Amino acid sequence: MKNRKIDKVKRIALVAHDNRKKVLVEWSRFNKVILEKHLLWATGTTGALLEKEVGLKVTSLVSGPLGGDSQIGAMITEAKLDFLFFFWDPLAAQPHDTDVKALLRLAVLWNIPMACNRATADFLISSSLMDGEYTRQIIDYSNHYNRPIAG
User: Fold this and answer.
1) Are 110 and 77 in contact (CB under 8 A)?
2) Which of 2, 74, 82, 122 has the greatest number of C-beta atoms within 10 Å?
3) CATH number of the domain encompassing residue 111
4) Does a structural domain hold residue 37?
5) What residue ranges in 7-97 does DSSP mark as E strands?
6) CA distances in angstroms from 43 to 31, 78, 111, 134, 144, listed in the order given
7) Domain span at 120
8) Considering the domain boundaries, does residue 96 fall inside one?
């Protein structure tokens, strides 16, 4: 196992599918005081909405279907993000479903705290661990890289 420290100021990604943007905006408005203490990234449209509707300072990436989910996934693998709040729509097919699945997989793989709905997001953001440092454990994948390739 490897340890990776999450600082007091968290680096948080905020993502929402179209049918969940309103929920994320309402949740962010309710939690604005907490979110303002942290560094925020979001996919394009979601970031613009959070800035306009909630008044949060957000670094916006490109839209999810244009690669924003992949950008966030890359940030996770590069240890540039600590949290993922991804309000995804389980009832709507997405043109970039493979990117969505890849992002969820990377968050689990790198042991990133993640909420995919408002109830889980409420529990995460209200946790006493949000106010301080935390050390998360990551599986050491070095053996995976060193294994022989079949064929």
Assistant:
1) yes
2) 82
3) 3.40.50.1380
4) yes
5) 11-16, 39-42, 59-60, 83-87
6) 19, 17, 21, 26, 31
7) 2-127+135-146
8) yes
Q: Mean pLDDT for each consecutive 10-residue tract of the chain (151 residues)? A: 93 94 97 98 95 98 90 96 92 72 93 96 96 92 71 64
d(CA 119, CA 97): 23
**pLDDT tens by residue, 31-60:** 999 999 999 999 999 999 999 999 999 999
pTM: 0.90
CB 17 within 8 A of CB 91: no
Catalytically active residues are: 69
Torsion of CA 40, 46, 50, 51, to 10 degrees: 80
